[in-house]
Amino acid sequence: MPLTANGAATAHSTLGADLHAAPEVHSAIDTLVAEVAARSARLTGARPPRAELKETYESFMKRAADVRGRALLYPYLGSGLGNGALVELMDGSVKWDMISGIGVHFFGHSDPENIRHSLAGALSDTVMEGNLQANFDHYQFGETLLSLAKRNSRLAHCYVSTSGAMANENAVKVCYQKHAPASRVIAFKDCFMGRSVTMSQIGDAAANRVGVPLSTQVDYMPFYDLVAAQRMGKKRYIDMAVWHLMQYIERYPKQHACFIFELIQGEGGFNVGDREWAEELMKCCKAHSIAVWDDEIQTFGRTEQMFAYEMFDLGQYVDVFCVGKMTQICATLFTPEYNPGPGLLSGTFTGGPALFATGTRVLERLRDGNFYGPDGAFARHHALFRQHAKALAAKHPEWFPPVTGPFGPAVDDIVGGVGGMMRFTPFGGNKDKINKACKTMFEEGVVAFYCGHGPYHLRMLPPLPVFKESDWPAVFQCIERGLARAAQ
Ligand SMILES: Cc1ncc(COP(=O)(O)O)c(C=O)c1O
């Protein structure tokens, strides 16, 4: 079977299809994959840096900082080899990668299938494909994604791109064109959308747009706050959210092109939305001709359903949708009504054959695995994560003081998130302490990160499909050592 989408080898096939189906090619790929696997298998657990590599590693770090113009946040330079959730760095250390490139390497490091499909893609005639000249693998990726998206939404078309920010740029243009001349957007407090000029304006973080001229008109809504909803009563809370939205709509009639929903906030703090709340806001958008744009660049694939809109049963409301990170290729999907006119979406390159082949395979693996649902692998991992984090808090209560905000408790629990989005909140969510914990945990063998804008949380996006349930104790031992040092 050919590994790329350019057709099967038959008596009537092309020379290109013959190449991809050739037994010699398959056997060469098998040899390479086996070679990687043999070395990868030697990485079996976290280990400290090797003293004899220290000097060279420091010189590589300095070269990297010189290129970047600033020191790297983590002293992370991969060696190019890993084994599932384990990654080897150039200093010979091995770490548990619990953030996976902020969610990109969902199938971990040195994954045999990813390597196999990258190699097959690399045999294509070009390194990049673009809007004008593409092979079918480009459309097969979109076809596969759409076949999954269509199961529970009206999304019908797909335009691919090379970053989440670009997928979002394409999405906002689609919304603007459909609702022209409406020029305002509605977004949630603490949202993150990427770092292009427009997206860093919509994203709710002042530090990410220092010096960027403000040309996009954004109205912010509060994100779902479970603690406040419990305090006020849920119905009253939702009524107030709709009332808040209506104020914007009445203040700027017919001027909003879209409302951007991140149903579970990523950078904003792994805050989980609520079905009824989101549905009432979406209904309000529909009634006032405002596009419902669902940004699933961080959530896709890792909640308890493949799509977060499926988890909340809100697919019928979604007009425009974005995906990225674990799909390797980013994409903007839209319903027939939002299909833009010619010229709005294009690009010299949209991705390369190795990425299309790997991205398509990622989608198939997500589809065919036993990952989703309340008893699926991701829900089981999430439950284990919670158990371990709570056990750590019970053992060291002094590391887990209450997390308070301006109106009392800021979170309902010290653990949060859903599926493969996992957060926990030591040190009362204090920014400096959480930053310090990221660094000490890194030194102790776990790569994690933070999220939130106050309270701050420790965040993990583990490579769940390749992470074993039996790996959790080893990861939490590293976390415990890291927190002990951060607590000092
Ligand atoms: C929700 C969301 N949207 C957009 C982006 C931007 O994606 P990229 O960094 O690939 O441009 C991110 C990245 O973290 C994200 O989490």
Strand content: 5-15%
* Structure class: alpha/beta
Q: How many helical stretches?
A: 16
Helix amount: 40-55%
Main β-sheet, spatial strand arrangement:
4-10-9-8-7-5-6
Overall geometry comes to globular
Class of the domain at 136-351 in CATH?
Alpha Beta
- Oligomer status: single chain
Care to count the β-strands? 17
Per CATH, which architecture of the domain at 136-351? Answer: 3-Layer(aba) Sandwich
Low-confidence stretches: none
Let me know the largest β-sheet: 7 strands, mixed
Q: Could you give me the name of the CATH homologous superfamily of the domain at 136-351?
A: Type I PLP-dependent aspartate aminotransferase-like (Major domain)
Distance between the termini: 58 Å
Chain-averaged pLDDT: 96
Bound molecules: pyridoxal-5'-phosphate
Q: Tell me the radius of gyration.
A: 23 Å
Using the coordinates shown, work out and report the CATH topology of the domain at 136-351: Aspartate Aminotransferase, domain 2
Blueprint of the fold:
Blueprint: H1 15-21, H2 23-40, H3 54-68, E1 78-83, E2 86-89, E3 94-97, H4 100-103, H5 112-122, H6 136-149, E4 157-161, H7 164-178, E5 184-188, H8 197-202, E6 217-221, H9 226-232, H10 234-251, E7 256-261, H11 275-287, E8 291-295, H12 308-311, E9 320-323, E10 330-334, H13 353-368, H14 377-395, E11 404-405, E12 408-409, E13 415-418, E14 421-424, H15 431-443, E15 446-447, E16 449-451, E17 457-460, H16 472-487
Parallel strand pairs: 3-15, 5-6, 5-7, 7-8, 8-9
Antiparallel strand pairs: 1-2, 2-3, 4-10, 9-10, 11-12, 13-14, 14-17, 16-17
Helix pairs in contact: 2-5, 5-13, 6-13, 9-10, 10-11, 14-16, 15-16
The structure holds pyridoxal-5'-phosphate.
